[in-house]
Design a protein that fits this description.
Elements lengths: L5 E5 L6 H14 L4 E5 L5 H11 L8 H25 L3 E5 L2 H11 L4 H12 L6 E6 L2 H12 L11 H17 L4 E5 L4 H15 L1
Parallel strand pairs: 1-3, 1-4, 2-3, 4-5
The structure holds P1-(5'-adenosyl)P5-(5'-thymidyl)pentaphosphate.
Length: 208
């Protein structure tokens, strides 16, 4: 049995990650591959419960450190119960966000720094990294239009943070892609979903 691959999609709010993840899964399944689509925070029963605590539960919210720990705890469960077992049995895992989101949001925009987030990831998930990380990049003004059309001004606790926070998230992702070109591929996220999907498949075909 061949070993599976682990591909993460990353980017800011509304960049089109979920849309592209679904199209990627369909394309890989059409090739006869076994594929698991999952997301973060979430993917397992426990991690989905933590997602609720992080994004939508009523209450005063979390401090920066508690927030980072909760993301790391959710990821730990997701990695142990779903991602690693799937890869071992030859499944391709397509994950909508992974540790680079914690690095960009909690580490970069939230101010905790990259070293602490990496430490949490080492402790929680033995430092597992995707084989390939697709960074979908869309100018902020285009994303704002997409999200206004979809959400009518209602966003979750982290999505609703101000433009300066999200600009720091985008700058962090961009820096990660520059620093690790062997793992990251930048995808131009503008245009219609099918055109972006073609760009994704060009990268995946080179990698596979
Ligand atoms: N978070 C997450 C952290 O802070 N740290 C972490 O470690 C992790 C894992 C997750 C939140 O948690 C934070 C980040 C987030 O704030 P989420 O709901 O999963 O919450 O948030 P997003 O990942 O941002 O999900 P979104 O659904 O908002 O964005 P996507 O998946 O990038 O975008 P998608 O595909 O759903 O598309 C958004 C809208 O645009 C349309 C879609 O139909 C949809 O309406 N669209 C397009 N429109 C025009 N042209 C295109 N090419 C389009 N592609 C999609």
């Amino acid at each position: 049995m061949s070993i599976g691959r682990f591909i993460a999609l990353e980017g800011g709010e509304g960049a089109g990650k979920s849309t592209q993840a679904k199209l990627l899964v369909e394309a890989l399944e059409a090739r006869g591959l076994q594929v698991e689509l999952t997301r973060e925070p979430g993917g397992t029963v426990g991690a989905e419960a933590i997602r609720e605590l992080l994004l939508t539960a009523e209450g005063e919210g979390w401090g920066a450190r508690a927030e980072a720990l909760l993301f790391a705890a959710a990821r730990s469960d997701h990695v142990e119960r779903l991602i690693k077992p799937a890869i071992k049995t030859g499944t391709w895992v397509i994950c909508d966000r992974f540790v680079d989101s914690s690095r960009a949001y909690q580490g970069g925009a939230g101010g905790l720094g990259d070293a602490d987030i990496r430490d949490l990831h080492r402790i929680g998930s033995e430092g597992l990294l995707p084989d390939l990380t697709l960074l979908i990049e869309v100018p902020a003004e285009q994303v704002a239009k997409r999200l206004a059309a979809r959400d009518a001004g209602v966003s979750d606790r982290i999505g609703g943070r101000d433009a300066a926070y999200h600009a720091k998230v985008a700058a962090s992702f961009s820096r990660f892609a520059d620093e690790e070109p062997q793992r990251f591929a930048r995808i131009d996220g503008t245009g219609i979903p099918e055109a972006i999907h073609q760009r994704v498949m060009q990268v995946v075909d080179r990698f596979a």
